[in-house]
Write a structure and sequence with these properties.
- Chains A, B: Its EC number is 1.1.1.85.
- Chains A, B: Substrate binds at residues 97, 107, 135, 224.
- Chains A, B: Belongs to the isocitrate and isopropylmalate dehydrogenases family. LeuB type 1 subfamily.
- Two copies of one chain form a homodimer.
- Chain A folds into two domains: 1-107 and 262-363, Isopropylmalate Dehydrogenase (3-Layer(aba) Sandwich), CATH 3.40.718; 130-257, Isopropylmalate Dehydrogenase (3-Layer(aba) Sandwich), CATH 3.40.718.
- In chain A, helix 10 packs antiparallel against helix 11 (318-333).
- The first copy, chain A, is globular.
- Chain A contains twelve helices and twelve strands.
- In chain A, a hairpin with a 2-residue loop joins strand 6 and strand 7.
- Chain A has a ten-stranded mixed sheet, with helices on both faces. Chain A has a two-stranded antiparallel ribbon with strand order 6-7.
- Chain A has helices at residues 15-33, 46-52, 58-66, 89-99, 123-126, 166-181, 197-210, 223-232, 244-257, 301-313, 318-333, 352-362, and strands at residues 5-11, 38-41, 69-74, 104-110, 130-136, 144-152, 155-165, 186-191, 217-222, 239-242, 265-272, 278-284.
- Helix content of chain A is 40%, strand content 23%.
- Chain A has 363 residues and is of the alpha/beta class.
- At the A-B interface, strand 6, strand 7, helix 7, helix 8 and helix 9 of A face strand 6, strand 7, helix 7, helix 8 and helix 9 of B.
- Bound molecules: 3-isopropylmalic acid (2 copies).
- One 3-isopropylmalic acid sits between chains B (90, 93-94, 248) and A (194-195, 224).
């Protein structure tokens, strides 16, 4: 059997820096645990635009369809801010999500014990927090047609379309219920069914799917209240299920609760391929952080933990994923800190590469 | 000259309870400060549905168009959850917003000194917080067409349309810049211009309007980052300008930062009427709170402070608005607390009506 394949797309800003540390981890698993991967690398985002004039070359897209997992760093940066919408770095990422049909975006918001003091929230509100946001990732207002800027009378109008079919809602809901079965058996679905018909259909389909998971407790919340409850009492949640746009906002809100945005990974999963593995792309929740790019200051942990999610969801190596996550926890407990994790403790920050080495050493 | 007119729409749940306290305040200003108002009252939301079979009668709509200010309590409740979308209690409120053309929704998020301990956030992050969210309120995905649930092939699809014209964006932007001129001269505009063309037009128009306010510092932020920054470091903001849907979520998030959702008022303003006053509706940010309705537990302060906003924005009584706000601050400083404001202090909560009386006494 061939080795499982990974396509690395470091992207822009701190993407290449954090990805270099993931490479060390991949090498370690090959050398020490006999987990060999065929690793290739390519361009995405601004880096791809610089070379190809578009944020994702067709050959890269084809490769992404072909591998067992894609690892992505981050896209975008001020150099690309004035590009035309159609070639913006983000379009490369959105094309991957859409064409790979990665409908289920898993975003854990976890508070690491060693970092509980670091949150803006009071410690008792976040300590031990462990929620999973499932964000629908291939539809909604991100992709709905018609869209664009049009002439209307003597002015222009900007239009986007929120659009969800029953089957799109159903498959995202199913993945949330499946996850809840392996967690604390609670799903809270968030929409604006009081204002949007797409939210009414969302609520109806989620309720229907829930009948197949009688052990899971389902609740519904309007997304505005959801944002409020995330700040007020986030531990009330287990799995949160929501659409593409609400998920974008709510997951950033949830991520910040833990005070450790440089720490949070994500997995974007699609339907099973022929080999039984899901189509999959893994990426940190943080962006390309142009302000610190190239300075060796970035925290590679979010990207490293994204690889841990790959071990778990693509390569069926749950125990090895646990091992990697435990190594990260140990490094944090030992007080190793990149600059983003420094409270007022007077600790010297380590560099991106020192953090990667520390995780390897703790494995 | 006739007295200025106010239409009171108490609505559902705790709406009537908190509005009863506002009535005491209005009476006080008439008796003690010679500010006489012609006050009438009518139904909205579930209460209107029960009587008329729809959440806002046409006569009520006509009255609302005719008065100098509308004061609204809250709409909705579990009794109405299964009503058809077109007659849901919320539609009554949305009809008022749309037909009165109340395009600028002002939502202050303020941390009251006496309550800084009450937030989920650490005290230094929220103490002294004073931001103003300006939410566009008459357009966007709340009202865009086409909308509905349609058949498509052998399944259904839920559709809503995000839609903003240049002039809609412009007038909301102008109101944000005007406010910033009277505050700390900073506007942060939030959208998803990296994903939505309507966000691109939004950013372009806001930038154009800003040329008329050279003293105001304008920044742009993606709405997901905005949610994150609100939790991370809310004091970086002065005025936040955003659209209807993002404003719904971000303002709830901001409200919760202060830990005092029962405290926060809002004003929804439209174009000037013949008498020079803006079309205006004032309402607390909180909802109808069915869980505590009818128990005398609700905090009337948000609704009382909404009347203070009416004094300021509709009746040109800034000094009297200050007086009312100072009375609320004094009552809080004296330790008077409704049940929602009790931390672990062992204080006995006062009732809705006792809180109203305390504010009157402090005036
Ligand atoms: C970069 C951007 C297109 C993206 C999104 O809006 O989905 C990002 O914010 C995210 O959450 O992954
Ligand atoms: C009640 C509901 C229609 C309303 C909205 O979504 O605008 C509410 O959440 C608000 O923020 O005023």
């Amino acid at each position: 059997m061939p080795n499982p394949s990974i396509l690395i797309l470091p992207g822009d800003g701190i993407g290449p820096e954090v990805m270099a540390e993931v490479r060390k981890i991949i090498t370690w698993f090959g050398d020490k645990r006999g987990l060999q991967f065929d690793v290739s690398e390519d361009l995405v985002g601004g880096a791809a635009y610089d070379k190809h004039g578009k944020p994702l070359a067709d050959e890269t897209m084809a490769k992404a369809q072909d591998v067992d997992a894609v690892l992505l760093g981050a896209v975008g940066g001020p150099a690309y801010d004035n590009l035309d919408f159609s070639v913006k770095p983000e379009r490369g990422l959105l094309r991957l999500r859409k064409e790979m049909d990665l409908y289920s975006n898993l975003r854990p918001a976890q508070c690491f014990d060693a970092l509980a003091d670091f949150s803006s929230l009071k410690k008792d509100i976040v300590a031990g927090l462990d929620i999973m946001i499932v964000r629908e990732l291939t539809s909604g207002v991100y992709f709905g047609e018609p869209r664009g800027i049009f002439e209307e009378g003597n002015e222009r109008v900007g239009i986007n379309t929120q659009r969800y079919t029953e089957s799109e809602i159903e498959r995202a809901a199913r993945s949330a219920f499946e996850l809840a079965m392996r967690r604390n058996k609670k799903v809270c679905s968030m929409e604006k069914a009081n204002v949007m018909e797409s939210g009414i259909l969302w609520r109806e389909v989620v309720t229907r799917v829930s009948a197949d998971y009688p052990e899971v407790e389902l609740s519904h919340m309007y997304a505005d209240n959801g944002a409020m409850q995330l700040v007020r009492a986030p531990k009330q949640f287990d799995v949160i299920l929501t659409d593409n746009l609400f998920g974008d906002i709510l997951s950033d809100c949830a991520a910040m609760l833990t005070g450790s945005l440089g720490m949070l990974p994500s997995a974007s999963l699609g339907a099973p391929m022929e080999n039984g593995r899901p189509k999959a792309l893994y990426e940190p929740v943080h962006g390309s952080a142009p302000d610190i790019a190239g300075q060796g200051k970035a925290n590679p942990i979010a990207c490293i933990l994204s690889f841990a999610m790959a071990l778990r969801y693509s390569f069926d190596q749950g125990a090895e994923a646990d091992r990697l996550e435990a190594a990260v926890e140990k490094v944090l407990a030992d007080g190793v800190r990149t600059a983003d994790l420094l409270a007022s403790e007077g600790v010297e920050p380590v560099s991106t590469s020192q953090m990667g080495d520390a995780v390897v050493a703790a494995l």
